[in-house]
Amino acid sequence: MTVAAPVTDTVDFVAGDGMPLNLKRVRGPKPARKGPVLLIPGAGVRAALFRPPEPVTVVDALLDDGWDVWLENWRASIDVPRNEWNLDQAAFYDHPRAVRKIRELTGADTVKAVVHCQGSSSFMLAVTAGLLPEVDNIVANSMSLHPVVPPWSRFKLSWLVPVVAPLLRYLDTRWEEPGHPSPNLVARALVAVVHASHHECENSSCRMISFTYGSGRPGLWSHENLSEATHDWLRNEFADVPMSFFRQMARSVRAGRLVPTGQFAVLPPDLLDHPPRTDARIALLTGDENRCFLPLSQHATLAYLRRHRPAGQQSVQVLPGYGHLDMFLGRYAARDVFGYILEQLNA
Ligand SMILES: [Zn+2]
Fold this sequence. Notes:
Elements: E1 7-14, E2 20-27, E3 36-40, H1 58-64, E4 68-73, H2 87-106, E5 111-116, H3 117-128, E6 135-141, H4 151-164, E7 170-172, H5 185-197, H6 204-213, H7 228-233, E8 240-242, H8 243-255, E9 281-287, H9 296-308, E10 314-319, H10 326-329, H11 333-336, H12 338-346
Parallel strand pairs: 3-4, 3-5, 5-6, 6-9, 9-10
Antiparallel strand pairs: 1-2, 2-4, 7-8
Bound molecules: zinc ion.
Zinc ion (ZN) is lined by residues 200-201, 203, 206, 218, 223, 231.
Cofactor: FAD
InterPro entries: AB_hydrolase_fold, Cholesterol_Oxidase
Protein name: Esterase
């Protein structure tokens, strides 16, 4: 007997400032008897990041458990036109419209969410500001409201970003992959430094990703946790990320918490001095080997949530042997991680 492959529909929606974005709705062979779950990936990737070439992805696990699965290509996605975004714009313009679109099409009163990295930080800003009252259950991976990074990342954000930002508006982890030449001397110099200092594998994108987003070799996963197929697949799943984002992250890392730009009244720079405007159940997740955002990040967000909300509405789980993105891409993630995510969504 063959099992029908999931079918993916593209659902366009328009962000609050008119930017055209889209959702991918994935339907499996089983009817979705549970409500909608929105999955939001990080920066400089696309919605399909949740679907590496593994036998069971988190999308498969959710479909099998009866969920209606939606993946968001927000403004940081490499599948939408390149733009110099910040987290506030995503929180204010993108995620509320994505949730509204899902509710319109499904008739659901509430939406659950599994969010990762900058998909998580921008979503959690929106949640904290009270822009997503319809979201009642969130699983947030790696970082939520309090970015705490290793010393090397702090150095890059404090010293390299100010030097590089005036010369390069974007970093692209595909530079030097076939068909993606470095655009100028500064980019070529960066690639040369990465190639000279990262010898952990032969995959140029993997090495550039480590330099761009983390500390360590590699920075976002351990090679032991990735299959060869997924390690190779990654080459085409990461691309450019604007310096506008790194500037905001540098300010936030210095402050020990996300600092909105002040562009929107509902997202003031001191947003986290105030209680979060949400009743959602929030499960914070990370790996003990996370070298992109240290596990302290999630513990700091837990402490903030606990100060303002009843016990039991939030939790943190640190999985041993996992880092930042192998939580979703790892060859054993179906065994080690997805069960926990389902448990939280079903709670
Ligand atoms: Zn590698």
